[in-house]
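Researcher: Here's the sequence for the chain we discussed earlier.
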Amino acid sequence: MPRKKLTQGSRTLRREHARRWKRSKLSVALVGGPVILAVVAGSVFAAGSHHRRGTPRASAQPTLVGEPNANCTLVVPPQPLTAKGLATPYELVATDPTQGPCHEANPDQAAFVEAAILTQDGKLTIYNPLVVDKGARPAARPVLPSVPAGSTVGIWFGFNNANLTLRAGDRSDSLGQGKCVNGVPGSIFGQFAYCNAPAFFKAANEQTANKKLTIPALGTAKDGLPCPTTRDFSVVDQDGSDNVVTHYLVDARGRIAQNNAASRKAMAKAKRLDNHGDRHHRHDGRDRSAKVNVPTDLANGSDNLLLTAFMDPALGCKPFTAPNQSSDNQATSALALDELSAAANQQEPIALIPQNDPMTLVDGRASAEKTNAYRAGVNMAPIGADGDGDGAAYCRTLFDDPAGIRRVFTAKAIFEQAPSPDPGTAPNLFAFLAARAEGTFTDLGCDTLLNVSNPVTLTTSGDGLVTDAVLTPLGQTPQPAEPTESTSPSASPNPSAGGSDTPAASATPSAQTPASSTTMKPSRKNHHGG
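Model: Thanks. This is the structure I predict for it:
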Protein backbone atom coordinates (compact mmCIF):
# COMPACT_ATOMS: atom_id res chain seq x y z
CA MET A 1 0.00 0.00 0.00
CA PRO A 2 1.63 3.28 -1.03
CA ARG A 3 2.09 5.62 1.87
CA LYS A 4 4.51 8.16 3.21
CA LYS A 5 7.34 6.87 5.34
CA LEU A 6 6.74 7.47 9.03
CA THR A 7 9.42 8.28 11.55
CA GLN A 8 9.74 6.12 14.66
CA GLY A 9 8.31 8.99 16.72
CA SER A 10 5.24 9.37 14.54
CA ARG A 11 4.64 5.61 14.56
CA THR A 12 4.80 5.59 18.36
CA LEU A 13 2.38 8.51 18.55
CA ARG A 14 -0.08 6.82 16.20
CA ARG A 15 0.07 3.56 18.15
CA GLU A 16 -0.61 5.46 21.37
CA HIS A 17 -3.55 7.27 19.72
CA ALA A 18 -4.89 3.92 18.52
CA ARG A 19 -4.49 2.31 21.94
CA ARG A 20 -6.40 5.07 23.69
CA TRP A 21 -9.07 5.18 20.98
CA LYS A 22 -9.65 1.43 21.11
CA ARG A 23 -9.91 1.44 24.88
CA SER A 24 -12.39 4.29 24.74
CA LYS A 25 -14.94 2.08 22.98
CA LEU A 26 -15.94 1.08 26.48
CA SER A 27 -18.11 4.18 26.55
CA VAL A 28 -20.60 2.61 24.16
CA ALA A 29 -20.91 -0.44 26.39
CA LEU A 30 -21.58 1.29 29.66
CA VAL A 31 -24.35 3.52 28.37
CA GLY A 32 -25.55 1.38 25.48
CA GLY A 33 -25.93 -1.81 27.49
CA PRO A 34 -29.18 -0.99 29.25
CA VAL A 35 -30.70 0.23 25.96
CA ILE A 36 -30.04 -3.13 24.33
CA LEU A 37 -31.38 -4.97 27.34
CA ALA A 38 -34.56 -2.93 27.29
CA VAL A 39 -35.19 -3.70 23.63
CA VAL A 40 -33.78 -7.20 23.31
CA ALA A 41 -33.62 -8.95 26.64
CA GLY A 42 -36.81 -7.54 28.06
CA SER A 43 -35.34 -6.08 31.23
CA VAL A 44 -33.25 -3.12 32.27
CA PHE A 45 -30.43 -3.22 34.80
CA ALA A 46 -28.48 -0.41 36.40
CA ALA A 47 -25.22 0.30 34.58
CA GLY A 48 -22.16 2.10 35.87
CA SER A 49 -22.04 5.55 34.32
CA HIS A 50 -19.03 6.38 32.21
CA HIS A 51 -16.98 9.51 32.69
CA ARG A 52 -13.96 10.97 31.03
CA ARG A 53 -10.53 9.95 32.21
CA GLY A 54 -9.70 11.34 35.61
CA THR A 55 -13.23 11.31 37.00
CA PRO A 56 -14.85 8.60 39.14
CA ARG A 57 -16.97 5.83 37.66
CA ALA A 58 -19.17 3.14 39.14
CA SER A 59 -17.70 -0.34 39.07
CA ALA A 60 -18.40 -3.75 40.49
CA GLN A 61 -14.76 -3.88 41.55
CA PRO A 62 -13.10 -1.58 44.07
CA THR A 63 -11.38 1.38 42.43
CA LEU A 64 -7.72 0.57 41.80
CA VAL A 65 -4.86 3.01 42.03
CA GLY A 66 -3.57 3.94 38.56
CA GLU A 67 -4.55 2.49 35.20
CA PRO A 68 -5.89 -1.09 35.12
CA ASN A 69 -3.82 -3.75 33.40
CA ALA A 70 -4.48 -3.25 29.69
CA ASN A 71 -3.26 -6.73 28.66
CA CYS A 72 -5.36 -9.73 29.66
CA THR A 73 -5.59 -13.35 28.55
CA LEU A 74 -8.62 -15.58 28.01
CA VAL A 75 -8.17 -19.27 28.73
CA VAL A 76 -10.25 -21.10 26.11
CA PRO A 77 -12.03 -24.24 27.41
CA PRO A 78 -11.60 -27.64 25.72
CA GLN A 79 -13.71 -28.38 22.63
CA PRO A 80 -15.02 -24.79 22.42
CA LEU A 81 -17.23 -25.45 19.38
CA THR A 82 -19.34 -28.11 21.14
CA ALA A 83 -22.35 -27.60 23.41
CA LYS A 84 -20.28 -28.56 26.47
CA GLY A 85 -17.43 -26.27 25.43
CA LEU A 86 -19.78 -23.33 24.86
CA ALA A 87 -21.30 -23.82 28.33
CA THR A 88 -17.87 -24.01 30.02
CA PRO A 89 -16.81 -20.55 31.27
CA TYR A 90 -13.71 -18.92 29.79
CA GLU A 91 -11.22 -17.73 32.39
CA LEU A 92 -9.68 -14.26 32.47
CA VAL A 93 -6.14 -13.81 33.76
CA ALA A 94 -3.41 -11.19 33.48
CA THR A 95 -1.10 -11.77 30.52
CA ASP A 96 1.75 -10.42 32.65
CA PRO A 97 0.86 -10.53 36.36
CA THR A 98 3.54 -7.93 37.15
CA GLN A 99 1.35 -5.35 35.36
CA GLY A 100 -1.51 -6.01 37.78
CA PRO A 101 -4.50 -8.35 37.91
CA CYS A 102 -7.36 -8.72 35.43
CA HIS A 103 -10.92 -8.90 36.73
CA GLU A 104 -13.92 -9.64 34.54
CA ALA A 105 -16.18 -7.52 36.77
CA ASN A 106 -14.02 -4.44 36.12
CA PRO A 107 -15.61 -2.70 33.10
CA ASP A 108 -12.15 -1.49 32.03
CA GLN A 109 -10.87 -5.07 31.70
CA ALA A 110 -13.92 -7.14 30.84
CA ALA A 111 -13.69 -9.65 27.99
CA PHE A 112 -16.68 -10.98 26.05
CA VAL A 113 -17.48 -14.06 23.99
CA GLU A 114 -20.20 -14.37 21.36
CA ALA A 115 -21.10 -17.50 19.39
CA ALA A 116 -23.39 -18.15 16.45
CA ILE A 117 -24.80 -21.61 15.74
CA LEU A 118 -26.00 -22.48 12.22
CA THR A 119 -27.85 -25.76 11.66
CA GLN A 120 -27.81 -27.70 8.41
CA ASP A 121 -31.33 -26.52 7.59
CA GLY A 122 -30.46 -22.84 7.93
CA LYS A 123 -31.59 -22.05 11.48
CA LEU A 124 -29.46 -19.43 13.26
CA THR A 125 -29.17 -18.92 16.99
CA ILE A 126 -26.83 -16.88 19.18
CA TYR A 127 -25.14 -17.99 22.40
CA ASN A 128 -22.96 -15.97 24.79
CA PRO A 129 -20.36 -18.15 26.55
CA LEU A 130 -19.51 -16.82 29.99
CA VAL A 131 -16.23 -15.26 31.19
CA VAL A 132 -15.12 -15.41 34.84
CA ASP A 133 -11.90 -14.68 36.68
CA LYS A 134 -9.45 -17.59 36.65
CA GLY A 135 -10.39 -19.94 39.48
CA ALA A 136 -13.75 -18.27 40.10
CA ARG A 137 -17.18 -19.85 39.80
CA PRO A 138 -20.04 -18.21 37.89
CA ALA A 139 -22.90 -16.70 39.86
CA ALA A 140 -25.33 -19.04 38.10
CA ARG A 141 -25.00 -22.21 36.07
CA PRO A 142 -24.58 -21.37 32.35
CA VAL A 143 -27.29 -22.53 29.97
CA LEU A 144 -26.39 -25.68 28.02
CA PRO A 145 -27.02 -24.71 24.38
CA SER A 146 -28.55 -26.86 21.69
CA VAL A 147 -26.03 -27.63 18.94
CA PRO A 148 -27.73 -30.10 16.56
CA ALA A 149 -25.55 -32.60 14.71
CA GLY A 150 -24.04 -31.10 11.59
CA SER A 151 -24.21 -27.51 12.91
CA THR A 152 -21.43 -25.01 12.25
CA VAL A 153 -20.36 -22.86 15.18
CA GLY A 154 -18.40 -19.60 15.04
CA ILE A 155 -17.05 -17.67 18.03
CA TRP A 156 -15.94 -14.03 18.29
CA PHE A 157 -14.28 -12.09 21.10
CA GLY A 158 -14.31 -8.50 22.34
CA PHE A 159 -12.33 -6.68 25.02
CA ASN A 160 -12.74 -3.39 26.88
CA ASN A 161 -9.04 -2.57 27.00
CA ALA A 162 -6.02 -2.80 24.70
CA ASN A 163 -4.81 -6.38 24.11
CA LEU A 164 -6.65 -9.66 24.61
CA THR A 165 -4.64 -12.86 24.12
CA LEU A 166 -6.21 -16.31 23.70
CA ARG A 167 -4.56 -19.24 25.47
CA ALA A 168 -5.34 -22.94 25.71
CA GLY A 169 -5.93 -24.43 29.12
CA ASP A 170 -3.51 -26.81 30.75
CA ARG A 171 -3.23 -30.13 28.90
CA SER A 172 -5.65 -28.86 26.26
CA ASP A 173 -5.45 -28.09 22.54
CA SER A 174 -8.53 -25.88 22.69
CA LEU A 175 -7.09 -23.26 20.30
CA GLY A 176 -6.51 -25.93 17.67
CA GLN A 177 -9.85 -27.62 18.37
CA GLY A 178 -11.63 -24.30 17.91
CA LYS A 179 -9.50 -23.14 14.95
CA CYS A 180 -8.92 -19.93 16.90
CA VAL A 181 -7.15 -16.91 15.40
CA ASN A 182 -5.72 -14.14 17.59
CA GLY A 183 -3.72 -12.36 14.85
CA VAL A 184 -0.56 -13.54 13.09
CA PRO A 185 2.58 -15.00 14.68
CA GLY A 186 4.15 -12.38 16.92
CA SER A 187 1.34 -9.83 16.47
CA ILE A 188 -2.17 -10.14 17.91
CA PHE A 189 -5.11 -8.06 16.70
CA GLY A 190 -5.68 -6.36 20.04
CA GLN A 191 -9.30 -6.33 21.21
CA PHE A 192 -10.49 -8.86 18.64
CA ALA A 193 -10.15 -12.61 17.98
CA TYR A 194 -12.26 -15.45 16.62
CA CYS A 195 -12.63 -19.23 16.43
CA ASN A 196 -13.87 -21.10 13.34
CA ALA A 197 -15.33 -17.91 11.86
CA PRO A 198 -14.29 -18.58 8.22
CA ALA A 199 -16.01 -21.99 8.28
CA PHE A 200 -19.14 -20.46 9.81
CA PHE A 201 -19.38 -17.75 7.16
CA LYS A 202 -18.67 -20.26 4.37
CA ALA A 203 -21.57 -22.41 5.55
CA ALA A 204 -23.84 -19.38 6.00
CA ASN A 205 -23.01 -17.99 2.56
CA GLU A 206 -23.71 -21.36 0.95
CA GLN A 207 -27.03 -21.69 2.74
CA THR A 208 -27.95 -18.16 1.71
CA ALA A 209 -27.19 -19.03 -1.92
CA ASN A 210 -29.29 -22.21 -1.59
CA LYS A 211 -32.13 -20.17 -0.02
CA LYS A 212 -32.02 -22.15 3.22
CA LEU A 213 -30.95 -19.01 5.10
CA THR A 214 -32.67 -15.70 4.48
CA ILE A 215 -30.90 -12.41 5.20
CA PRO A 216 -33.47 -9.62 5.67
CA ALA A 217 -33.34 -6.52 3.50
CA LEU A 218 -32.09 -3.29 5.07
CA GLY A 219 -35.04 -1.00 4.55
CA THR A 220 -34.92 2.77 4.11
CA ALA A 221 -33.69 5.11 6.83
CA LYS A 222 -35.30 8.38 7.90
CA ASP A 223 -32.76 10.29 5.84
CA GLY A 224 -34.00 8.58 2.68
CA LEU A 225 -30.90 6.39 2.26
CA PRO A 226 -30.58 2.63 2.81
CA CYS A 227 -30.26 1.65 6.45
CA PRO A 228 -26.55 1.39 7.35
CA THR A 229 -24.52 -1.75 7.95
CA THR A 230 -21.16 -2.36 9.61
CA ARG A 231 -19.62 -1.74 6.17
CA ASP A 232 -21.27 1.63 5.66
CA PHE A 233 -18.74 4.46 5.64
CA SER A 234 -21.05 6.49 7.88
CA VAL A 235 -20.68 3.80 10.58
CA VAL A 236 -17.06 2.65 10.50
CA ASP A 237 -14.23 4.20 12.47
CA GLN A 238 -10.52 3.45 12.77
CA ASP A 239 -11.14 -0.30 13.21
CA GLY A 240 -14.44 -1.50 11.81
CA SER A 241 -16.30 -4.77 12.48
CA ASP A 242 -14.60 -5.32 15.83
CA ASN A 243 -15.92 -6.46 19.22
CA VAL A 244 -19.28 -8.04 20.02
CA VAL A 245 -22.77 -7.34 21.40
CA THR A 246 -22.58 -9.72 24.37
CA HIS A 247 -24.04 -8.73 27.77
CA TYR A 248 -23.32 -10.35 31.12
CA LEU A 249 -24.70 -9.73 34.60
CA VAL A 250 -22.45 -8.82 37.53
CA ASP A 251 -23.32 -8.38 41.21
CA ALA A 252 -21.74 -6.15 43.84
CA ARG A 253 -19.24 -8.88 44.77
CA GLY A 254 -18.04 -9.26 41.19
CA ARG A 255 -19.79 -12.55 40.43
CA ILE A 256 -20.63 -13.02 36.75
CA ALA A 257 -23.58 -14.73 35.07
CA GLN A 258 -25.27 -14.94 31.70
CA ASN A 259 -28.02 -12.43 30.98
CA ASN A 260 -31.21 -14.39 31.61
CA ALA A 261 -34.05 -14.74 34.11
CA ALA A 262 -32.56 -17.79 35.83
CA SER A 263 -29.30 -15.93 36.47
CA ARG A 264 -31.11 -12.91 37.90
CA LYS A 265 -33.08 -15.19 40.22
CA ALA A 266 -29.96 -17.03 41.35
CA MET A 267 -28.04 -13.79 41.94
CA ALA A 268 -30.91 -12.29 43.95
CA LYS A 269 -31.13 -15.45 46.05
CA ALA A 270 -27.37 -15.41 46.68
CA LYS A 271 -27.59 -11.79 47.77
CA ARG A 272 -30.38 -12.55 50.22
CA LEU A 273 -28.31 -15.40 51.67
CA ASP A 274 -25.32 -13.09 52.00
CA ASN A 275 -27.43 -10.57 53.88
CA HIS A 276 -29.01 -13.25 56.08
CA GLY A 277 -25.61 -14.60 57.08
CA ASP A 278 -24.17 -11.20 57.97
CA ARG A 279 -25.19 -10.26 61.51
CA HIS A 280 -23.92 -6.72 60.97
CA HIS A 281 -25.94 -6.19 57.77
CA ARG A 282 -28.56 -3.48 58.12
CA HIS A 283 -31.48 -2.91 55.77
CA ASP A 284 -32.89 0.53 55.09
CA GLY A 285 -36.31 -0.88 54.36
CA ARG A 286 -37.58 -3.11 51.59
CA ASP A 287 -36.76 -0.61 48.82
CA ARG A 288 -33.03 -0.66 49.61
CA SER A 289 -33.02 -4.44 49.92
CA ALA A 290 -34.64 -4.77 46.51
CA LYS A 291 -32.16 -2.41 44.89
CA VAL A 292 -29.06 -4.23 46.08
CA ASN A 293 -30.43 -7.44 44.56
CA VAL A 294 -30.50 -5.94 41.06
CA PRO A 295 -27.46 -7.09 39.04
CA THR A 296 -25.53 -4.67 36.86
CA ASP A 297 -25.24 -4.96 33.09
CA LEU A 298 -21.72 -5.57 31.76
CA ALA A 299 -21.31 -5.03 28.02
CA ASN A 300 -18.67 -4.69 25.33
CA GLY A 301 -18.12 -1.35 23.60
CA SER A 302 -18.32 -2.15 19.90
CA ASP A 303 -19.15 -0.84 16.45
CA ASN A 304 -21.91 -3.43 16.36
CA LEU A 305 -23.51 -2.11 19.53
CA LEU A 306 -23.22 1.48 18.31
CA LEU A 307 -24.99 0.53 15.07
CA THR A 308 -27.78 -1.66 16.44
CA ALA A 309 -28.50 0.18 19.72
CA PHE A 310 -28.06 3.80 18.67
CA MET A 311 -27.78 4.51 14.94
CA ASP A 312 -30.46 2.06 13.82
CA PRO A 313 -33.11 3.35 16.27
CA ALA A 314 -32.26 6.96 15.40
CA LEU A 315 -32.71 6.24 11.69
CA GLY A 316 -35.82 4.09 12.11
CA CYS A 317 -33.97 0.92 11.11
CA LYS A 318 -34.01 -2.62 12.51
CA PRO A 319 -30.98 -4.90 12.79
CA PHE A 320 -30.81 -8.55 11.77
CA THR A 321 -31.58 -10.59 14.91
CA ALA A 322 -31.81 -14.23 15.99
CA PRO A 323 -32.89 -16.07 19.17
CA ASN A 324 -30.25 -15.96 21.90
CA GLN A 325 -30.10 -19.30 23.68
CA SER A 326 -28.25 -17.82 26.66
CA SER A 327 -30.81 -15.01 27.08
CA ASP A 328 -34.16 -16.80 27.24
CA ASN A 329 -34.26 -17.05 23.42
CA GLN A 330 -34.91 -13.33 23.14
CA ALA A 331 -34.10 -11.87 19.71
CA THR A 332 -30.67 -10.22 19.71
CA SER A 333 -28.18 -8.78 17.28
CA ALA A 334 -24.62 -10.15 17.01
CA LEU A 335 -21.40 -9.59 15.11
CA ALA A 336 -22.03 -12.61 12.87
CA LEU A 337 -25.51 -11.37 11.96
CA ASP A 338 -24.27 -7.85 11.28
CA GLU A 339 -21.57 -9.14 8.93
CA LEU A 340 -23.96 -11.44 7.09
CA SER A 341 -26.32 -8.51 6.62
CA ALA A 342 -23.49 -6.24 5.45
CA ALA A 343 -22.20 -8.80 2.96
CA ALA A 344 -25.67 -9.33 1.49
CA ASN A 345 -26.93 -5.75 1.46
CA GLN A 346 -24.23 -3.09 1.54
CA GLN A 347 -23.99 -1.15 -1.72
CA GLU A 348 -21.00 0.83 -3.00
CA PRO A 349 -18.97 2.28 -1.48
CA ILE A 350 -18.24 -0.70 0.77
CA ALA A 351 -15.97 -0.22 3.77
CA LEU A 352 -13.69 -3.25 3.93
CA ILE A 353 -10.91 -3.51 6.52
CA PRO A 354 -7.97 -1.44 5.15
CA GLN A 355 -4.29 -2.01 5.74
CA ASN A 356 -4.04 1.07 7.98
CA ASP A 357 -6.52 -0.37 10.49
CA PRO A 358 -4.53 -0.26 13.77
CA MET A 359 -5.54 -3.85 14.60
CA THR A 360 -3.97 -5.11 11.37
CA LEU A 361 -0.61 -3.33 11.69
CA VAL A 362 2.55 -5.26 12.57
CA ASP A 363 5.05 -3.11 14.48
CA GLY A 364 3.31 -0.02 13.10
CA ARG A 365 3.58 -1.18 9.48
CA ALA A 366 0.89 -2.33 7.07
CA SER A 367 0.56 -6.12 6.73
CA ALA A 368 -1.49 -7.76 3.99
CA GLU A 369 -1.24 -11.08 5.84
CA LYS A 370 -2.69 -9.70 9.06
CA THR A 371 -5.33 -7.65 7.25
CA ASN A 372 -6.49 -10.76 5.41
CA ALA A 373 -6.51 -12.76 8.66
CA TYR A 374 -8.77 -10.12 10.20
CA ARG A 375 -11.01 -10.02 7.12
CA ALA A 376 -11.43 -13.80 7.17
CA GLY A 377 -12.97 -13.53 10.63
CA VAL A 378 -15.65 -11.04 9.57
CA ASN A 379 -16.79 -12.50 6.23
CA MET A 380 -14.69 -10.26 3.98
CA ALA A 381 -12.75 -11.33 0.90
CA PRO A 382 -8.95 -10.98 0.92
CA ILE A 383 -7.33 -7.82 -0.36
CA GLY A 384 -7.83 -7.70 -4.11
CA ALA A 385 -5.98 -6.21 -7.04
CA ASP A 386 -8.38 -3.26 -7.17
CA GLY A 387 -6.71 -1.58 -4.22
CA ASP A 388 -9.58 -2.15 -1.79
CA GLY A 389 -7.11 -2.31 1.10
CA ASP A 390 -5.50 1.04 0.32
CA GLY A 391 -5.51 3.31 3.37
CA ALA A 392 -5.54 6.58 1.46
CA ALA A 393 -8.57 5.52 -0.59
CA TYR A 394 -10.33 4.42 2.59
CA CYS A 395 -9.63 7.77 4.28
CA ARG A 396 -10.82 9.77 1.27
CA THR A 397 -14.09 7.85 0.99
CA LEU A 398 -14.69 8.04 4.72
CA PHE A 399 -14.31 11.82 4.87
CA ASP A 400 -15.14 13.03 1.34
CA ASP A 401 -17.88 10.75 -0.01
CA PRO A 402 -21.56 11.65 0.64
CA ALA A 403 -21.99 8.09 1.94
CA GLY A 404 -19.29 8.55 4.57
CA ILE A 405 -19.15 10.82 7.60
CA ARG A 406 -20.89 13.47 5.48
CA ARG A 407 -24.07 11.42 5.87
CA VAL A 408 -23.91 11.96 9.64
CA PHE A 409 -23.52 15.72 9.19
CA THR A 410 -26.28 15.87 6.55
CA ALA A 411 -28.63 14.02 8.92
CA LYS A 412 -27.51 16.10 11.89
CA ALA A 413 -31.05 17.02 12.92
CA ILE A 414 -31.96 13.33 13.17
CA PHE A 415 -28.91 12.32 15.18
CA GLU A 416 -29.20 15.32 17.50
CA GLN A 417 -32.53 13.95 18.69
CA ALA A 418 -30.99 10.58 19.57
CA PRO A 419 -29.34 9.73 22.92
CA SER A 420 -25.57 9.73 23.21
CA PRO A 421 -23.77 6.44 23.86
CA ASP A 422 -21.64 8.42 26.32
CA PRO A 423 -23.18 11.57 27.86
CA GLY A 424 -19.81 12.21 29.49
CA THR A 425 -18.40 12.91 26.02
CA ALA A 426 -21.33 14.36 24.09
CA PRO A 427 -24.97 15.21 24.85
CA ASN A 428 -26.40 13.53 21.75
CA LEU A 429 -25.59 10.97 19.08
CA PHE A 430 -24.54 13.53 16.48
CA ALA A 431 -21.88 15.11 18.69
CA PHE A 432 -20.67 11.67 19.75
CA LEU A 433 -20.26 10.50 16.14
CA ALA A 434 -18.51 13.74 15.21
CA ALA A 435 -16.02 13.36 18.07
CA ARG A 436 -15.43 9.76 17.02
CA ALA A 437 -14.79 10.82 13.41
CA GLU A 438 -12.35 13.54 14.46
CA GLY A 439 -10.25 11.00 16.32
CA THR A 440 -10.52 8.39 13.57
CA PHE A 441 -8.93 10.77 11.06
CA THR A 442 -5.77 10.89 13.18
CA ASP A 443 -5.74 7.25 14.24
CA LEU A 444 -5.92 6.01 10.63
CA GLY A 445 -3.07 8.34 9.65
CA CYS A 446 -5.34 10.09 7.16
CA ASP A 447 -3.50 13.38 7.72
CA THR A 448 -0.24 11.80 6.50
CA LEU A 449 -1.80 9.67 3.75
CA LEU A 450 -3.80 12.53 2.23
CA ASN A 451 -1.60 15.47 3.32
CA VAL A 452 -4.65 17.43 4.48
CA SER A 453 -5.86 18.86 7.77
CA ASN A 454 -8.42 17.12 9.91
CA PRO A 455 -11.76 18.11 8.32
CA VAL A 456 -13.74 17.74 11.56
CA THR A 457 -13.69 20.73 13.90
CA LEU A 458 -15.34 20.18 17.25
CA THR A 459 -17.11 22.65 19.51
CA THR A 460 -16.72 21.88 23.19
CA SER A 461 -17.95 23.34 26.44
CA GLY A 462 -15.57 24.56 29.10
CA ASP A 463 -15.38 21.12 30.71
CA GLY A 464 -14.55 19.37 27.42
CA LEU A 465 -18.04 18.13 26.48
CA VAL A 466 -18.34 17.93 22.67
CA THR A 467 -21.47 19.90 21.83
CA ASP A 468 -21.27 20.53 18.07
CA ALA A 469 -19.04 20.04 15.04
CA VAL A 470 -18.36 21.26 11.51
CA LEU A 471 -17.15 19.15 8.60
CA THR A 472 -14.96 21.04 6.12
CA PRO A 473 -14.36 19.61 2.61
CA LEU A 474 -11.05 17.77 2.37
CA GLY A 475 -8.21 20.04 1.30
CA GLN A 476 -9.85 23.24 2.47
CA THR A 477 -8.68 25.09 5.55
CA PRO A 478 -10.79 24.10 8.56
CA GLN A 479 -12.50 26.77 10.60
CA PRO A 480 -9.76 27.98 12.96
CA ALA A 481 -10.11 27.17 16.61
CA GLU A 482 -10.10 29.88 19.23
CA PRO A 483 -7.62 28.80 21.88
CA THR A 484 -8.61 29.05 25.51
CA GLU A 485 -6.64 28.53 28.68
CA SER A 486 -7.87 24.96 28.94
CA THR A 487 -7.19 23.85 25.37
CA SER A 488 -5.07 24.44 22.33
CA PRO A 489 -5.64 23.67 18.63
CA SER A 490 -4.26 20.35 17.43
CA ALA A 491 -1.45 20.48 14.91
CA SER A 492 -2.18 19.40 11.32
CA PRO A 493 -0.10 19.24 8.13
CA ASN A 494 -0.57 21.93 5.51
CA PRO A 495 -3.66 21.32 3.38
CA SER A 496 -3.21 20.37 -0.24
CA ALA A 497 -4.26 22.66 -3.04
CA GLY A 498 -7.01 20.34 -4.23
CA GLY A 499 -10.26 19.49 -2.52
CA SER A 500 -13.99 19.10 -2.88
CA ASP A 501 -16.20 22.09 -3.68
CA THR A 502 -18.94 20.74 -1.44
CA PRO A 503 -20.01 23.31 1.17
CA ALA A 504 -19.10 22.57 4.76
CA ALA A 505 -21.75 20.52 6.52
CA SER A 506 -23.98 22.11 9.13
CA ALA A 507 -22.23 24.84 11.06
CA THR A 508 -25.31 25.79 13.07
CA PRO A 509 -24.68 25.32 16.79
CA SER A 510 -26.79 22.72 18.54
CA ALA A 511 -29.64 23.93 20.73
CA GLN A 512 -27.89 22.05 23.54
CA THR A 513 -24.62 23.97 23.13
CA PRO A 514 -23.85 26.02 26.25
CA ALA A 515 -23.32 29.73 25.65
CA SER A 516 -19.79 29.44 26.99
CA SER A 517 -18.70 26.92 24.34
CA THR A 518 -15.91 27.70 21.92
CA THR A 519 -15.09 26.04 18.62
CA MET A 520 -11.93 24.04 19.08
CA LYS A 521 -10.24 20.68 18.82
CA PRO A 522 -10.06 19.26 22.33
CA SER A 523 -7.44 16.89 23.63
CA ARG A 524 -7.85 13.33 22.32
CA LYS A 525 -8.07 12.04 25.87
CA ASN A 526 -11.56 13.54 26.03
CA HIS A 527 -12.82 11.47 23.10
CA HIS A 528 -14.58 8.16 23.18
CA GLY A 529 -15.43 5.97 20.24
CA GLY A 530 -17.65 3.10 19.33
